[in-house]
């Protein structure tokens, strides 16, 4: 499911201007959205900002996240003209999206768990929502569940600790403990009627598809939001005439930024970012 908070048609596309899209997350989760979007819109210039200084956002307070993101967007705007910002973090979206949009003139799009699709996919009427504690307990998500879950049972499970596991897996090639996963999923695995569909309410969790299928013996439908989000963004940009392919547009390399860069951060991230098509990694202090 996609949350669009500014009217994309309010943006003016200048002649020979390559659109610049900022994808923002606290870690590697947003790369899944970037990967899907780059296939659909390859001639856009993508910036990726991961806020590693305060990773993960699920452990931060509402006000601290809001202030942090406002500062990051203002800092990036000192170096780039942004045509669109994508908040690729469910926790950040449900926490402050409606507030942060009023602070900037560019369109901002956020991501939330695709509960509607999860309900469509279930066969036994039991759907699991796996997300961070803050996402699961947000008023927005609880209201959506109350509105849509009239004919099925939606089980909520907080797994904030998995966010760090994903970072270790992607950046350090560290295996995720299967025993830890069994422990996390024990409330569902002990049920006589287990969820046959799991909504992945954190973009990080898409990197654990293999492990999740091991736990549920490949009989589970995993529902992420990245693919649908990318498709909706592509449709919005094309319908608003902001995106016209590569006609008369000089291609500028994609760039990645972080809030704190050290030798370790550079070594961990450089190879991963290179694989995703980013030409450089730099620090923008917040």
Notes on the structure:
The chain has two domains: 2-112 and 227-283, Rossmann fold (3-Layer(aba) Sandwich); 115-224, Rossmann fold, CATH 3.40.50. Helices cover 41% and strands 17% of the residues. The chain has eleven helices and eleven strands. The chain has helices at 31-40, 62-77, 90-100, 115-121, 133-136, 139-148, 161-172, 178-189, 209-215, 226-239, 263-275, and strands at residues 2-4, 20-25, 45-50, 84-87, 108-111, 126-131, 153-158, 197-200, 221-223, 255-258, 281-283. The strands form two sheets. It has a seven-stranded mixed beta sheet with strand order 1-5-4-2-3-10-11, sandwiched between helices. Strands 7-6-8-9 form a four-stranded parallel beta sheet, sandwiched between helices. Helix 1 (31-40) packs across helix 10 (226-239) and helix 2 crosses helix 3 (90-100). The chain is globular. The relative contact order is 0.20.
């Amino acid at each position: 499911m996609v949350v669009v908070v500014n009217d994309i048609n309010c943006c003016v596309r200048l002649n020979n201007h390559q659109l610049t899209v900022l994808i923002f997350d606290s870690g590697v989760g947003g790369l899944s959205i970037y990967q899907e979007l780059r296939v659909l819109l390859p001639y856009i210039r993508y910036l990726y900002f991961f806020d590693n200084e305060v990773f993960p956002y699920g452990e931060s307070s509402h006000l601290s996240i809001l202030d942090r993101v406002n500062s990051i967007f203002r800092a990036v705007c000192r170096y780039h003209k942004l045509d669109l910002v994508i908040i690729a973090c469910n926790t950040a979206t449900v926490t402050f999206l409606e507030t942060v949009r009023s602070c900037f003139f560019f369109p901002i799009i956020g991501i939330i768990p695709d509960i509607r699709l999860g309900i469509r996919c279930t066969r036994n009427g039991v759907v699991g929502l796996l997300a961070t504690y803050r996402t699961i307990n947000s008023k927005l998500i609880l209201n959506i569940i109350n509105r849509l879950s009239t004919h099925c049972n939606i089980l909520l499970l907080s797994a904030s600790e998995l966010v760090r596991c994903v970072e270790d897996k992607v950046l350090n090639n560290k295996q995720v403990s299967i025993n830890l996963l069994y422990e996390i999923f024990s409330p569902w695995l002990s049920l006589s009627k287990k969820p046959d569909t799991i909504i992945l309410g954190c973009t990080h969790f898409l990197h654990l598809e293999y492990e999740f299928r091991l736990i549920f013996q490949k009989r589970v439908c995993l529902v992420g939001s990245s693919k649908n989000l990318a498709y909706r963004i592509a449709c919005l940009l094309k319908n608003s005439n902001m995106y016209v392919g590569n006609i008369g547009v000089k291609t500028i390399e994609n760039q990645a930024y972080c809030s704190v860069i050290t030798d370790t951060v550079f070594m961990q991230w450089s190879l991963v970012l290179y694989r995703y098509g980013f030409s450089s990694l730099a620090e923008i202090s917040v």
